[in-house]
Design a protein that fits this description.
The complex is a heterodimer of chains A (455) and B (297). Chain A is of the alpha/beta class. Chain A has 16 helices and 18 strands. The chains are: A alpha/beta (455), B mainly alpha (297). At the A-B interface, helix 4, helix 6, strand 11, helix 8 and helix 10 of A face helix 1, helix 2, helix 3, helix 10 and helix 13 of B.
Chain lengths: 455, 297
């Protein structure tokens, strides 16, 4: 019969109190953890011992190490085993005596916790993510590991296998969203994109990002956006660059890695403040120029997003109306409370909003009328074959006209040829951004570019 | 729209509000000298002489840098006699943070009572670094980390003072509040708080992630009490060290008592593996350390 310890009374302890000691024989001798069979058995016992009238449900956390195969493939199995052992050790430390830990084989682990509310499960998941993502030195290489977690909370009807299966399926979804995150079963609302980078390269980019954040290796480049009507400067878009040991990484290489590892929040906050300071600096020189800054999903779903916006204003003294926040279409359409609340708060703080990459998400044109943005940026995917693909032409034209009729400005991104420029200006696009008009440039280069335009 | 409306280069287009904010500029972007040191650090083959020259260009900076490098809390047996000595002794990374700490004070807006604020920050920082030595180094927190954190921890306050005229009263209320987290009191009146502002500033000065997070969560006693891993252990340790240092300083000087220790003290002691009973001896030792560290002043 499992022994049950008394509930802890510490008001600040969100951890569940119901701790059942498993039998030693069920442990995987190598890692000192339950094996697959032991896991199912303990899950059954916990489910039986849970009285839904008095206790919170049993939670199953299914964990998998992100990119473990890549670590194995690129650094060798010995390194892979060392990583596995270290992460299993951390997992044991981080989960403490909060539950039962099992190794389901390979790099898959399960943590079972009874009497676990959704909020408690979220705390535990965050804890686990943080503990597992501490850097790890393998030989001369510093790895920044991460895990994905699928979480299932038992329903009264669940048996052990159903509960574990749901956690496993949810893990697969968490992976599909890009990894380095937890997901509750039945709460998959987002679609991420999978990193397309090669194993070794991805680890290197991640290391470069960490170094850049401590050595000042990030910079913003600014790409002018010009009005079609008179060639006037509508705004500049801030684009991040990452320099490390002589190499320059473009955003297409490091942003997906930053999104996977959670570094995207710090990168986003850094660009917000740096862009805001640039606005102030230009203003001090007598130039009133709007800077457009990208906001990521991670930022918009994080607590304190609004306070961070105001903190950037306080640090930079930039007026909010000169900092345009570019938010992707799919994020605008996100129905979750926190996203919509944060978008409203940004608007109330005076930041102009732009819908970025329009046309790539699951666009519902009807909902365009409800979005609080004054500007729509047509995705470059339509621009590339505009001149040769009548379908792209038709879609681009329809979007431009609809947005104009709704009173929005339309910016076409990625314009590289005179032909594209002519077509888009003919359609009525308000402003154009792309290599055809101006490349992204450093702040100093932009100073010169601006000076050269002055009469 | 007409050309005149779009043209960004006409000063007369600046509205009054913007003109007003322009006068206040002086909030610190990262000083150029730190950019230069960073550039050397990114170089696979950094040139210490060049960095030494950069620091030595500013005599008061060089003097403060040397003094800090020779502080007892670093615990070096040898004394650096030149900026270059100090660079070799500390290494570029630590040196960059030490320089950042020295410059910070002169870069942030000053105002009435700011001298006292900075003196307290400096003493807290020194005591934090000393505590690291006293309690034993941990792999994730060294003396210089604790020193830098102590200096930067409250760097949001001068910015808030500059930005929000009613901030002194809010600060006083937050200091007195026995229950709510400090930042919650700030947010009851203002759209942001000094911990977030400080974190953004620290990020833009390229301080390490653990330090930035410790600045951001310095008043989050719930996070400290629960010991949740969502805050890295290095950050929690930094928060605990500086909080204990602040308490020691307040007990020794009797100045500007806050309620932070009531809210955070037990969690900080637990984080550092200390008991209430250890405090009297620590107070005595801290008194002796401060007397030594400030003997020249």
């Amino acid at each position: 019969m499992p022994r049950i310890t008394p509930a802890r009374t510490d008001a600040f302890d969100p951890m569940p109190s119901h701790y059942v000691e498993p039998l030693p024989s069920q442990y995987d001798s190598l890692a000192g953890l339950l094996d697959r069979e032991g896991c199912v058995q303990v899950a059954s016992e916990l489910l039986t011992a849970t009285d839904p009238a008095h206790l919170q449900p049993v939670a199953a956390f299914w964990l998998n190490i992100d990119r473990f195969k890549q670590i194995n493939d690129s650094l060798g199995h010995q390194a892979g085993d060392a990583v596995l052992a270290e992460l299993a050790h951390r997992l044991a430390l981080a989960s403490g005596n909060q539950g039962h830990l099992a190794r389901m084989g390979g790099d898959e682990f399960v943590l079972l916790v009874s009497d676990c509310s959704r909020a408690a499960a979220e705390h535990i998941a965050r804890d686990l993510l943080a503990a597992m993502s501490q850097p790890l030195d393998i030989g001369t290489m510093r790895l920044y590991p991460s895990v994905s977690i699928g979480i299932a909370l038992a329903t009264p009807q669940d048996n052990a296998r159903e509960l574990l299966e749901r956690a496993d399926q949810t893990l697969v979804q968490a992976k599909r969203l890009g990894g380095a995150q937890y997901l509750f079963a039945g709460e998959d609302m987002q679609r991420g994109r999978l990193g397309k980078l090669l194993a070794r390269e991805e680890l290197e980019v991640e290391e470069a990002l960490h170094k850049a954040l401590e050595n000042g290796g990030l910079s913003l480049h600014y790409q002018p956006i010009l009005q079609v009507a008179d060639g006037g400067l509508e705004a500049v878009e801030a684009l991040m660059r990452c320099h490390c040991e002589g190499s320059v990484f473009p955003p297409s290489r490091f942003i997906p890695v930053a999104e996977k590892t959670g570094l995207i929040i710090r990168l986003g906050e850094w660009s917000l403040l740096t862009g805001a300071r640039f606005v102030s600096r230009l203003a001090a020189d007598g130039r009133r120029l709007k800077v457009a800054i990208n906001v990521s999903r991670a930022q918009l779903t994080a607590p304190k997003f609004t306070q961070t916006l105001y903190a950037a204003l306080a640090c930079s003294n930039a007026p909010a109306e000169l900092i345009e926040l570019e938010i992707t279409e799919s994020l605008f359409m996100d129905s979750s409370d926190i996203v919509q609340r944060n978008i409203r708060a940004a608007l109330e703080a005076g930041f102009p909003l732009a819908i970025d990459d329009f046309g790539t998400g699951y666009s519902c044109l009807a909902s365009l009328k409800d979005l609080p943005a004054k500007k729509l940026k047509l995705d470059r995917a339509f621009i590339t074959d505009l001149a040769h693909n009548p379908r792209s032409f038709a879609i681009a034209k329809a979007i431009v006209h609809l947005a104009l009729d709704l009173g929005m400005n339309v910016v076409a991104e990625g314009v590289e040829t005179a032909e594209q420029y002519e077509i888009l200006s003919g359609m009525g696009a308000t402003a154009i951004q792309g290599f055809y008009l101006a490349r992204p440039m450093s702040d100093r280069q932009l100073d010169e570019w601006l000076a050269a335009r002055e009469p | 729209m007409s050309a005149a409306q779009n043209d960004p280069v006409l000063p007369e287009q600046l509205d009054n509000q913007l003109e007003a904010t322009l006068k206040e500029i002086g909030i610190p972007p990262r000083p150029a000298i730190l950019e230069e040191i960073s550039r050397e650090m990114r170089n696979p083959d950094p040139d210490f002489n060049r960095v030494a020259q950069l620091i030595s260009r500013d005599v008061s900076l060089a003097a403060s840098f040397l003094k800090t490098a020779n502080s007892p809390f670093y615990g070096y047996r040898h004394k650096a006699r030149s900026v270059r000595d100090a660079l070799i002794m500390l290494g570029l990374k630590v040196a960059a943070r030490t320089v950042a700490g020295v410059i910070l004070r002169h870069t942030l807006p000053s105002g009435p009572n700011m001298e006292r604020f900075w003196d307290a920050s400096d003493r807290t920082a020194q005591l934090s670094a000393w505590l690291v030595q006293k309690l034993g180094e941990q792999p994730d927190v060294h003396s210089d980390d604790a020193y830098t954190y102590g200096l930067f921890r409250d760097c949001g306050i001068p910015i808030m003072l500059r930005k929000f005229p009613n901030y002194p009263a809010i600060l006083a209320e937050a200091n007195r509040d026995p229950e709510r987290p400090f930042t919650e009191v700030e947010e009851a009146y203002l759209p942001t708080n000094h911990a977030l502002v400080g974190c953004l500033l620290a990020q833009s000065w390229w301080l390490p992630e653990a330090t930035c997070l410790a600045i951001r969560h310095q008043h989050d006693f719930v996070l400290m009490r629960t010991g949740l891993q969502s805050l890295p252990s290095a950050s929690r340790r930094l928060i605990a060290l500086a909080q204990l240092a602040e308490w020691l300083l307040q007990r020794l000087t009797g100045l500007s008592a806050t309620r932070e220790w009531d809210k955070m003290g037990p969690a900080c002691l637990a984080q550092l593996g200390l008991q209430e009973a250890d405090l009297p001896a620590l107070l005595e030792a801290a008194k002796a350390f401060l007397a030594e560290a400030y003997s020249e002043d």
